[in-house]
User: Fold LacI family transcriptional regulator from Prauserella endophytica.
Amino acid sequence: MPGRPKQAHSGKVTLADVATVAGVDRSVVSRVINDDPRLSVRQETRQRVLDTIERLGYRPNAAARSLRTARAYMFGLFIPDFANPVYAEIIKGAEQAANQLGYGLMTASSGGVRLGLQHYLDLLGQSRVDGLLFAGEESGHELERLRSASVPWLLVNRRIEGSRRYVVLDDERGSGLAVEHLAALGHRRIAHLAGPETADTARRRRAGYTAAMAAAGLRTGTRYTAHADYTPEGGAAAMRELLAVRPRPTAVFVANVASAVGALRTLHEAGLSVPGDMSVIAMHDMSLAGHLVPALTTVRMPLEGLGRRSLELLATTHPQDDITEVVAEPVEVVVRASTGPPTP
Amino acid sequence: MPGRPKQAHSGKVTLADVATVAGVDRSVVSRVINDDPRLSVRQETRQRVLDTIERLGYRPNAAARSLRTARAYMFGLFIPDFANPVYAEIIKGAEQAANQLGYGLMTASSGGVRLGLQHYLDLLGQSRVDGLLFAGEESGHELERLRSASVPWLLVNRRIEGSRRYVVLDDERGSGLAVEHLAALGHRRIAHLAGPETADTARRRRAGYTAAMAAAGLRTGTRYTAHADYTPEGGAAAMRELLAVRPRPTAVFVANVASAVGALRTLHEAGLSVPGDMSVIAMHDMSLAGHLVPALTTVRMPLEGLGRRSLELLATTHPQDDITEVVAEPVEVVVRASTGPPTP
DNA sequence: CTGAAAGCGCTTACAG
DNA sequence: CTGAAAGCGCTTACAG
Assistant:
């Protein structure tokens, strides 16, 4: 491109520049920056180095550092869908933790050009990331390929058979709170609109429901549980199943908000009032819940904490270590308009 | 950490390994990989190099390449909120384009630990990114700081005064389609529930509304436009204003879906039926629109194309070039249940 | 046409 | 206690 004005030398300041100006060796500058405990230097000299860095606006070059240390100072987070607010919160937590630890975070969805996992294997091969967080829907079979490569990776919000590296939420507890909320309102016939039987989160939510029902001395019976697929359409169909059961339940705990959207539609179409004829509570709080008609009561789970904790563990553990953690942060019911006492 | 089993050498294959096995010089391998046109080598040799790369599973080390070429092969995308589906689509498009061009994409929100822009300046200082896409809400004042650094950056979906580097959607055209849809249904009194007067997107949508109304020979009058702030609460209040106007409008074009959520609530509370008493159409299609009651008619804009095109332009233009592009991809009305003919 | 060699900007084991 | 030097894995101008 002839005639284009040549870009002025950006004057990138290097470590060598800092050393020259401060009158010390480059190694001293490096050690000051990295807080090397083996460096003993007069406080005065250290301060001079720090001042020089500040004055020249020096920033270590990430590529040089990575090449030398064989670390990318970058993690990857793999999610199925950016548009799902559940993942938005996980991303936020992971991003914060990464920044705090001096790492970058690359977030990618399955929608990428190269098929999801292959893309990540490429990143690993190029040493562009130091580890991977999987919040997506990769099959155990796919992830098997990662196991051979001795790469740090962690499952987020999900367990798969044979893996000892995951961080999950306390879905049992969240589900228990939902049931307790309904029971406290006076409901006795509480149904569960569950997720896919194959999904780990769905299984744990169902287990929490069953346990809480038992603890409250309430009967469950298999007909009071209908499985759906975490989508509005599936939720609508499952709600129709539950409405057909006699005696009809007076309340339902729905495994996720998307299913609850469909469930509310079914109830609306059936001419039933919420919560008059049926109370509805769903797992995971998100702003959409507040805008449904009626506004949906939910269980707020520490999704941001999940992202944060997952990244911290990825950064600070060895790839071979077992990690089987349940995020400890509190879980709570967010009461809106969709739950109330049963009509006598 | 004593006693920890030493990790087996991962056997990272380097360019030198490939050269040795293939029996050529490292520079030949490098040139084959990078398709250097100045390399003349027998087809047979080239194939041998390629085969060796394949067989050894060689992947170029990104850090070494970056250090040498002074390019990070990474772009940054800055968004205000991961949970907003509008940005989810932009991210998707940008991610695809980045992958296709051999770049990575770091997406970050203002929620990071370091205050948004400073975080990016750090990334730039460290040469971790080659350029920045701003889809966020940074003020012109903040962005002024970037102008001094001669860094490639681009505004996405927004213009600010004095900047000649942006990519936007055809909001005028989208708004025009909305008005045309309503006019075709027979509406004459069409109101506009606009966005913030200061927002560039809101101004362009309003301009599109005004122009289309004029083209259809319909009167607008300032009372038929109410400004809100792109939130459900603001939308609810603005809808109340519009309901007070006489003669009452029979249809409203809402500047975004969040405002429409509030507008629908106001209409519901006022006992008005949609679309019987009031047709509602909103800008930007998203799955939430299909789940509102009634399901919301929208204008689908090429958000993914916006992300894709922005990244392509960022990657292929010089920082000094003017970029003032409107994404050319088609815009269309997605008809759902919230629009219909006016009741006579 | 091909290959040897320099060098990008760091870190760190090691010599003094 | 301090600093010189090697080297991480590439790319590319240049010599042969």
User: Anything to note?
Assistant: Residues 24-28, 39-41, 64, 66-70 of chain B lie near DNA strand C (CB under 10 Å from a C1'). The longest helix of chain B spans residues 85-100.
